[in-house]
């Protein structure tokens, strides 16, 4: 009879362990799903962030290009005005002599 009690007790323990293992497997499955969801979210966020950074860089490059073009125009106008000033100064010197 003692052996039967031990067998019954062992069977109870085995059943309890099987239930615990099933709960652990369910928890593990739920955690794996959460990890997968977080990975997908991180990938999505990375793509969105990358796209946003590319858009910002494109806008900045366009602004730089526009400034460069404007600077060239302003420099050309400064040179033209300097030539006019030099011409006027020369005419003034010739007229005063």
Fold and architecture overview:
The model has no long low-confidence stretch (mean pLDDT 88). The protein contains 1 helix and no strands. It starts with a helix and ends with a helix. The longest helix has 95 residues, at 2-96. 0% of the residues are buried. The protein has one helix spanning 2-96. With 97 residues, it is mainly α. The chain is rod-shaped.
State the helical fraction.
Answer: over 70%
Query: How does the helix and strand content classify structurally?
Result: mainly alpha
Shape: rod-shaped
Low-confidence stretches: none
Question: Helical region count?
Answer: 1
Q: Would you report the number of β strands?
A: 0
Question: Layout of helices and strands, plus pairs?
Answer:
Layout: H1 2-96
Keywords:
mainly alpha, 97 residues
Condensed summary:
This protein is an all-alpha fold and 97 residues long. 98% of the residues lie in helices and 0% in strands. It has 1 helix and no strands.
């Amino acid at each position: 009879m003692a052996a039967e009690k031990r067998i019954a007790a062992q069977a109870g323990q085995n059943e309890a362990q099987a239930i615990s293992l099933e709960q652990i497997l369910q928890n593990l499955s739920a955690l794996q799903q959460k990890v997968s969801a977080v990975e997908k979210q991180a990938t999505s966020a990375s793509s969105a962030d990358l796209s946003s950074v590319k858009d910002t860089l494109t806008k900045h490059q366009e602004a730089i290009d526009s400034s460069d073009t404007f600077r060239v125009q302003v420099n050309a106008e400064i040179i033209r005005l300097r030539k006019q000033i030099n011409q006027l100064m020369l005419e003034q010197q010739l007229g005063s002599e």
